Each structure stands twice: as structure tokens, then as C-alpha cells.
Records
---
Amino acid sequence: MITSGYPDSMRELIALVEATRPERLKTSPPRMSAKEREEILREWHPDYKAGTKRPLSIGPSKGELVPHEVADLLEAYPLISPEEVDLSQIDYDVDVLIIGGGGAGTVAALWAYYEGIKPERILIATKLRWGDSNSIMAQGGIQAADRPEDSPAIHYLDIMGGGHYTNKPELVRALVTDGPMIIKWHESLGVMYDKNPDGSFVEKHGGGTSRMRMHSAKDYTGMEIMRALRDEARNIGIPVVEFAPAVELLMDDRGQVAGAILFNLETSQYLVVRAKATVLATGGFGRLHIQGFPTTNHYGATADGLVLAYRVGAKLRDMDAVQYHPTGVAYPEALVGQLVTEKVRGMGAMPVNRHGEAFVYPLEPRDVESAAFIRECYGRGNGVETPTGMRGVWLDSPMIEELHGPGTIKRELAAMWRMFNRFGIDMAKEPILVFPTLHYQNGGVEIDEHGWTGVPGLFAGGEVEGGVHGKNRLMGNSLLDYNVFGRRAGISAARHAKVAKLGKLSLEHIVAYSKMLAEAGINNDRKAPLLLPEYRGERALARSLKIRI
Amino acid sequence: MADREAVEQEERTSLAEELGVRIYIMGKEYRVPAGLTIMKAMEYAGYKFIRGAGCRAGFCGACGTVYRKEGEYKLRFAVACQKLVEDGMFLVQLPFAPAPRVSYDLEKLRPTENVLLKLYPELARCVACNTCTKACPQEIPVMDYIQAALRGDIKRVAELSFDCIQCGLCSMRCPADIKHYHVAQLARRLYGRYLAPKAEHLAQRVAEIEAGRFDEELDRLTRMGKEELSKLYEARQIEEGVGV
């Protein structure tokens, strides 16, 4: 088994990539027409594959198509029953509860505080550690229309076209209008964005953008923003309880969301949180491995928030659209599915097939680019096969060094260079092999422009909510989304908490939900939320016993 | 009978070949296939992570791991999600570092020469042993930025430490009890807030938005249906730039 560098079979093909590079540096395939984009999506995008979705049989979005993996969780019974928990013993009594300790949750906490809620009246509850999230893994950048050549209106148009005009207009408007203010806030928090000597931002293109508006911090953009936000929240002293996912929302007898039941993963104890307002910031569903795809997502991305919100009556939208990032690692095997940032293409690297030919405009919107890669590998037989039988296309990263000078990759794509170098591949000299990977939950819990879910007392921000991106998100709009809607949800929650009056705490809604499941004929053999995916080896699991210790 | 024994023997042999790597998780031997990361190998062996797994892609620092290889005197460091298992690896994860940070108000601090030393006086205990650098799974020159911190060179600390994933392994090894990654976080925020030049075009754009300069255009766009929008979308002028 090869554990370092490329095998000979792949090296031979790299020679073909090198042979065509000088020509390809001069020209690029054209952008597709609207008709071509529609056709390739219909034929090759996984969202269009038959038999992968079903209509929800119960609940507020009954009848809407969602992937089977999502339906399995929504059509599942609660992990707890009301008899098991004593709601008269309150462990945390707060104004604002934030469920999720990634970007959206941290931003919501900060803005709830700026809005006048005392730190000790806020609680962040998170399943893993504070900051363990997709937010910290984002690499390429964050969009904001702040250059004179650009405008929020142009940003709006890019987003609507990229999302196939399915986005919720008022959410898109909020996103593009708040964008520059968010970057300015980050600047004041000391986020080290890439800048030119005069202080202007270094801004690049992403897939589907018509202006260069991608702000970055090398290829550690998400990490740099997340660690600054978390550091600021630590300075303020916002309380956080880690390794304590919410397993159910609490309601009161007036039909308001009134907190949550947390579950201490390490001691198996439950905790009762009473809150005047609750913000859902639980992120997305990558770890459900929709259609068996590998994923770029962090360990805890298991759609818990969707399940909790659905049970209290929140609507979902655009859940039929899944984002597959065009460039997941296809080799080496140990890294399969991990993200290769779109910034690699933004800086000039071109997708190339096994014959060394360019076959697609490098920066189509993500769904189109992914569909083109899949067609190249499985429709035209032009993919490169790895020793384990995985197929992929080359991403000709050495072009970046040709275009911007030697050393650029190690400097500006430090995370990518480090990742491949650990496995014996120098992407400044050799192309890398990529294939689409499950990346983002395009849809989610429906919200209005204030981050309100429509259920009294429940707000949402970040990947858990839907509508901002319609059926397809553009690069750099997820970091912006969690900031814009984390902020709006935090502010709305704070304002709500100041006037809310809570009644008696209750878990009646999960009793009603279970009844609805039973009436729909759904067997009581599936439970949700999932909390963590199962990756233990088959051999180990086959001998696992459920003995209490 | 003999045939069955032969088959069983063959199965055992092929299993031993398939599980060709011996790793010792906290001293206990497990056999796993080659080509797995430490994280996936532990899962293969039957571990279900609560701590010690986060982003699974080298960005979050949740899976800091220390190991020694059989017959080697040297302690080595890795993040479990980015390191392949090797035969004879004795390993343990360090998913938490007890390294308290100092709270501060960024708006009241200034990027003065002594500010890092003032908040983290133990910096002065650095004996320049370079153990921190050797412990860094990101191969950051940790000691060099600590020396820069002692000189009050905030910019240098910020730049050298930029790729830090805050796993805390440096601080767990330091004989002087320095909290390197907290010092670095402070330096980066001071640099970004006070020393990096401000973006004037950004301030202008925020002012324009606040003054309502784009409201009318956005009013019009948000009222448009798919047909009108798609005409505008297809007619967009794409700005020239690298990658396009």
C-alpha cells in the first residue's frame, strides 16, 4: 500500500497534464449558457437522481421532498420521554439560550450581549467543544460587496442566479446589505484579513461571482474569524456548556419555545434549561452522508436542529437541494472527501481530465461545476482512477505558481499545502485529484429577515436555516450567512427575551409528535436526533454488547 | 477436516496481513489496516469519540495526539485526523489543555511593546529550549514567536503564529509554563485591530449603505420575478481577474 505520494499509474497521467499546461495558461473553456447549465444539472447533479428522496409523511412541511437520510430523522421518535425528566428542577434559567457553539451561535451570543442582555443571562450549549463546527473549517473566504466596482445589488443578482431564483428575496437582501458592516465589525475585532499595503482587502472571484468580492485570511479564513469571535465572547464572559447537545426543545403551556433539555455526553445526565428566547445554531447535515457521499463537514453535523425545530412546528424549505462541493479530495484515500478550497480555482488552478484536457469553465456555480466533474468521470469516461477504484479529475494547482510566482501556494494556501504535503504530495509541483463531496445544507428551517422561525420564542441562524441560498449556495456566502443571520437572530432573541413571559414548562409537543408518527404508521424503531455519526469498524461493532457499566 | 483447518489457517493469515499495523492505544494493542489515519484507526478498533474528534480535517485542534514509536526515544506529535498510523505506534490523545487565558478589553488595550508581557508575564521564563516548536503538529516556529513576543514585536507574533489551530500541545510541553497559543491569539487581534491598515473603501461602502444609497435598486430587484432577474443575470459583465 502506498502511503506517500502518487503511484506510478497516476504519475504517468500527470505527465499529460504537464504537457498541456503551457497552452491552458493562455485560454479557458467558456462559461456555460443558461440552457447548458440546466441540462447538465438535470442529467448529472446528484439532486436529480431518481429514488433518493421521499415526501415527508407528517409535520409542518408534510408532502415536501427531502433526502431519505433526512426523512429518516424527521420521521423518528424522540430520544427521551416526558416521564424521564423533572421539569421542576431548573439547571439553567436564562434570557437567551443558544444551541450550537459554532460561528452562528457565537455571533448570536455576542449580539444578544450588545443588545443589552447580561452575559450571565446568556447560555451557549454545544455538542462538542466551543468552535468545533463547519465555521472553523471554512477556507476560501467571505463575500461582501465593498469595492467601488461592486454593489449589494450586483451581489444580490449573483446570489439569485446561483440559487436558480428560488431564494427568499428578503433574506438575500439582508445578506448583501449587512455584508460590508459585518466585515467592518470583524476588522474592529482584529480579524486578520488579507490586505494590500494601503489597507484595501485582497479580493478574489468565487464560483458564480461577477465581481471579485471574496475576502480571505490565507486559506484559514473560517478559523481566523471563528477564533477571534470566540476570543471576544470569552473576554465578555459568556457562559458555555460543552459536550451537552440539546436533545429536545422545551415549550410552555402558551405554545412558546422556552428552552431545551441538554444531555451531558460524558455523564449521561440531562440538564433543564429555561430560556425566554432560544436561538437554534446547530449547523447542517453533512455527516448524514446523503447518497453515500463523503463529506467536508465536522463530526457533529448531524441535522439535530432540523429535528428539534420540526417537532415544535417550524417549517423547512429547500431541503431537496444538497450542496456537493466540486473539489473534495479524491486521493490519497485517507483524505477522501476533505475540502480543497474553491480559492484554489479562484487563484487560477484549472480542472483537467485524464487526457490533460480542460473540460469546464473553472468557476461555474458549485452545482454546475460538480455536475461537470461527475459527467467527465462517469459519462465520458475521462476520469482518473485511483488504486482503490475512486474516480476524480485533476485540479492543476501548479498553474497558480506559474500565474503568481513560486512560493504562492505555500504562502496563500498554507492549509492546503500542509494537508497534501503530510501525505507526500507537493501541490505546488503536482496537480491534485478531486471529486465532488457533500458540503452544505442549502435549505433548512424557514426564517424571516429577523431570524425568527415563526414559532414564538425560537430563532435560527447559520446553516440550520434555509432560504438565503435557495437551491444552491455560492462560495463565501456561508461565512457571511452565519454572521448576518447569527447577528439578526441574536438581536431578535434579546429583544424578545426582554418582553417574553413564560408559562409552565412542557414536553407535550413530543408526545403529540410521537402520536402523529404512530398514526402515520411509522414504526418506533428509529430515534432522533442522531447526535454523532457511527464510524466504528464493522468487525468491532459485530461484537459489541450493550452491557451497562 | 484437514481442508477446513487449512482454510481457517489461510483466513487467519490473510486477516493478519490485512490488519498489518499494530498500534497501542494508551498501551493496549490493536491491529488495524494500513493507510488509515490515527483517528480512523481508533474508530476501526471500536472507539466512538466524544472528545478527541472535531472537524476531522486538520483545522480545529480537537485531536492533538502524542506518540512514541517502538525503539525510538523521541516523543512525537500529530493531529489524529491528519496522520497515518505506523506500525508500533504508542499513542494517547490530549483533547484538552489546562492553559488558562487572560481576559482583556481589546478597546482599552494598545499595541505597546510590553502589552503581551504584561498580560502573560510568564513569557519572561522562556529558556529558548525550542520544545514548543518541536511539539507543534502544524510545524509553526513557536519559540520564534515567543521570542518575538518578548521583544514586543506584535506583528511578527501574529504572522508567525497565524496557522495555529490552538490544540495546546506547545503549552503542555513548555518547561516555563507559557500559554503560547493564548499569547498568539492576543497578538493577532492586536495586530488586526490596531496595526493593520484600515480599509477605507469598506468604511465608505458601509456609510453608503447606511445612507440608503442602494435601497431603491434593491427594492426593485426584490420585487422582480424569475424572468426579469434571469435576463439581468445572464447579461452580467464579469469582472476580469485571475481564475476567470
---
Amino acid sequence: MKHDVYIIGDEAISPLGIGSELNFQRLRNNDRAIVPIMDTHLCDHTIYAARIDEGYWSHLINDAPHYTRLERLFILALQRLINRHDIPVDGETLVILSTTKGNVSLLGDPRAAFPEQRARIPAMAAAIGRYFGFENQPIPISNACISGSLAISVARRLLRYGGKYKRAVVVGGDELSKFIVSGFDAFQALADGPCRPFDRDRKGLNLGEAVAGVYLSTVPVAGAVKISGVGSSNDANHISGPSRTGEGLYLSIREAMDEAGDVALDFISAHGTATVYNDEMEAIAFQRCGLSAVPAHSLKGYFGHTLGASGLLETVMAIHSLKNSELVPSAGFAHQGTSQPVNIITQPTQRPLNAFLKTASGFGGCNIATIFQNV
Amino acid sequence: MSELTQELKAKIIAQLNLEDLTVADLDDNTPLFGDGLGLDSIDALELIVMLDKSYGIKLSDPKEGRKVFETIQTMADFIEANRT
Amino acid sequence: MELHNYRITAFCTIRGRSIRVNGKEFLGADPSTPLGDFLKLAYRKLAIDYPKFHKMDGLCKAIFIATELIARESGRYKHHTALIFANRSSSYISDARHAHDIFRADNPVASPATFVYTLPNIAMGEISIRHQLQSENVFFIFDRYLPEFLVPYANATLDNQQADASALCGWTEITEGQCDLLLYHIGTSGSQTHSIEYLKRLYNEEDE
């Protein structure tokens, strides 16, 4: 027997603030977190990125000095989610952590305040698990830039087919570090200004940092959002270059649509990193799925690319779009800039919304598409 | 000039892990990308790092790279013209 | 709970400097052999022409070799073969190399060819290209081999496939100092049942 799985709670912490409602409100105000940053501990030249301010949030958790910065952010997000929804930490609660690089900022850095051992993802997961006393050890997923969306899919699958879990908490996070910035810089993937997803003049991405999470259950409550279809497929084409035909994303979306059945999509929350090749690939995949006319946005122009958090953060914001019946514009877009048209949202629009598609793609050729709808 | 092309061949084989090739296998005019050596976009980025590290030449426009990295010979010509 | 009847069709282990397929040794080398040299020996013994192998990091090379050997036993992989991998150290070999490149005192510079391998799922991308697998991939990071989690998740994944259940799963802990890999293909035929008990036994038996 297959159970339906619902999102019944969500949380987001980003440079725009603490709390998913607040973050959504900031999007409605057209507030963008991307700023020029000159910090030699990140990069020897100015980069445009979105960074969470230090200080004002650390006291919100216990024993803060015992945890790395990223662990503190994870703990704060989990604590808010658990307290708000009274989530039991017993053996029926599955805990999944999504991160692309975890505490990697500790690696090789002479300034690091924790031993290098803490850079290992299981050490981070254990620290977070200990804080809450979870009966089940938190399960980390590290699958490049689709980690966040994939973590939702993994949790859903484990709830869907029965077994020991009745509910799941899925939280994803990544932070800015020299490790990540230097790598994307070497890839010539960083824009020299605020990023412009799907725009003709896009020149690359901005990195960001965030922690975001969802609470999944097989029991719908008022305001629950159903996860009605998921598809995931590798391009089998190149380990870093997006497919020229959008094949993996196309297959992912088709699979998600087949599973969701007869659902009219009201909007698409695209990956939209604002690199030339990613956005072009997505436009082709959407066209091949007959979705060119569906209103679409990328939220990278507000938050930057938050790596392992991005799929979760952007899903959470899209859920608030559903709840508020409001389409959020795609920051940074002015002119069509892909070979296939995409119906980019340019104005905040109030209208009844029932269902949306979230997509993500990443290094290693991975892609994922998820369809969410009101219950 | 031929000293530079020889040096480039050795560097490219080492830097791009072209295990099965030796300097003698590489012709000055073999295309590095496409049907020639079959290098890809990551190799191109790696060559850009190599130009910077070994010859002090910064290449930030990927379009420029396409011409520079056409063959060993075009790379050598570019380095001769630009090195500091 | 449903009764699953998925079978292990073939498996491969890499332990220290020994590679075994379905329990039979494919290659052994002196324990002091550097990881890179050992994996290159294995590649040569496979007798295939795949120059991209030499660009991969140790994690990808080990997974590539195991995947190649399993295919020789269980047959060509179906395009939808799901990939479910886990390890402890993620992409540590490349992580450490990239960190060294950017923090060293003299001429620190990032290498794109190193950075791209600082993601464990790149290995799944590499074998997807090699075997044309247009399938779902997930990379878990655990503190230890955890069949108690992997088996139920793999079962749920196989239940989710419409027909022709097929998945490649396992534990892929590869660092310079330690090789601890157990990869196995799950399908609908084969003498061994895909179960936590069997996979525990397999992991321990091969660990001599």
C-alpha cells in the first residue's frame, strides 16, 4: 500500500531573515540578499554573494560555542521546526540532512576553530543529532545541487512505502567558504554583479547561504501541500556541463508529471542558476515538456545559489506562493535570453494557485523534478 | 619556438592526465578539442589555469580561449606574444 | 509490510589492495602499493579503452572499476538502473587536494579539474556516462556501513520502478589509506535474496 505524503510545516533561514513567512515577505518586498563582498578569507577579489550576518542569531540555541557556524544554523532551523509543530524525536521520526559540502570550510584553513575531523559530514550529523537526542541517527545526503530536492524525495519514498517511519524532518544547508568560492571562480561560473537568471545578459551565478527545511507526514492537516509526483534522471552526458538537449531534466519532469496525473501546473520554480548553459538547458527541457507557457521564476536573484539548501529553500518559498496566491517575479530578468522561450514572471501577480513544479540540476549530470499541490 | 611546443606538450599531458599519450604522439597542429585530442570544457578551464600559473597570462574571456587552445601551435604563438 | 523478492545478481569488493568479484579475486597487490597505482593496474587488467578514467579521482576510479566488473557478471545495465551509494568520507581525496591547492603558501590556485571531483555523486555521473544510465542517483553519507538503512531504501526504490527492477547499490569508502568498497547489483534473478542479513554477512565474509 502506498501512502500519500504531505508537507505540513516549513522553515527557512537566509540572509533575508529567520522564518519562512518572513523570507516570503521579503521576496514580496523585492528585497535581494546579493551584495558585493570583499573578504580575503573568501576570495582575493570582490564577489557578489548572499551572506547571513553573524551574531544576532547564535544566542538562540544552547551551547553555541560547541557547534560550527553551519551546525548552529541547522540546529536553529530544526529547533524552530520541532518546537512549532511539536515534532516527536522518537524512532518514528526520520531525520534527513541535505548538504553539498557541510563543514568543508574547516578543511585546510589555518584559522579554523574546530579540528579537521569535524569537516567530515558524519561528524556534523552526529553533533546535530546529539543536540536534539534524536532516536534515529540523522541521514545526510550529499548529491551536489539537487541535494535539497532529492532529500524531500528520499523522505517521501520512505514514508510512502510504509515501514518504521511515520513522519520526516528534512533540513538542508550550506555556507559560503573559500573552498566553494575558489572552485566556482576557477570554473568561471561567478557573475561580476547580481545574477540574472534566464536573461539575455546573464553572466553566471552568485553563491549564497541558507538553511531550509520541511516537515513531512502521511497525515494531511489543514494547509498541507501534497507531494504528488517526483522524477529524477541523470543526463549521462558530462560531469559538469549541462546537457545540450536537457535530456535528464526532460525525463525527470515527464516522470513527475506522469506520476502526478492530471494536474495543471500554475507555475515553475526553476533551478535558474544564471549560467549561460544551465538556463539554456532548462528552457529546452521545459519546451520539450510543453511547459514554455507556464509562468516560471528562479529565486537565485534573491538568495543566490545556496547549493544543498537551494531545492528546499525554493520549495518552501513556492509553498508560500501557493498559500498566499501570489506569483513571485524572477529577480534580475529583463530580456528573453534562451533559444526556447520561458514565460518568466516579471510582476508580482495575485491569482489562485493550486500546483507547482520545482526543478533542480547539478554537477554529475543529476536532475530532479517535483510536483506539489494543494490538498 | 619548438622548445616551447615540446614543453607545452609535456605540461598538457601531465596536467590533463592524458596517460596513454607521450610527447611524441602529439603533433603541433592536432586540434586539441573536438575530433583531435577530444579535450572537454573542464580541460579548457584547466588550460586557462596553466596559462596563468606557468606563463603569467590571464585569460578571462572563454571565447578567446577557443582560438588560443585550437592547437599546440596556436597556444605557443599566443604565449610568445603575451608572456611577461 | 510487503514481501520483497529482489535478488543480488553480482557483487564486487575492494578491500585494501584486493579486488574481488562474486568472491573470486580479480586483482591483488602488495598493501604498500599507492592507491593510484593499484587502481591503474586494475584499469589495465580490464583491457578497455577509456582515457577519461585517468582524469578521475580515486573514489570515481574505484567505483568505475567495480561497476565494470559487476556488469561483466550481471550483464549490461538497464538504462533505468537506480544508483544508491553511501560512504563515510564523501569526496575526501579531492576535498583535501582542493583545500591544499587554495591554502598553500606559495602560489595558491584552484584547479577546476580537482574541484569538480569534490562531490561524491560525480562518481555516479561518471558511471552513468560510461553505461548510459539515465536513472536516479542518491549519495548518502553515514558514519559506517548501514544496510539497515540502505536495504529498505533500495526496496522502496525498486518497488517504485514500474518493471524490470534494477539498482546498483553499496558502500564506497575510498581514501588513500583505506579502501572499503562493497558494490552490488540488485535485480529479479540470482541465488541470494536482497536482505539486511545477507548484506551484513557478505560485508563481513569478504572482510578477511
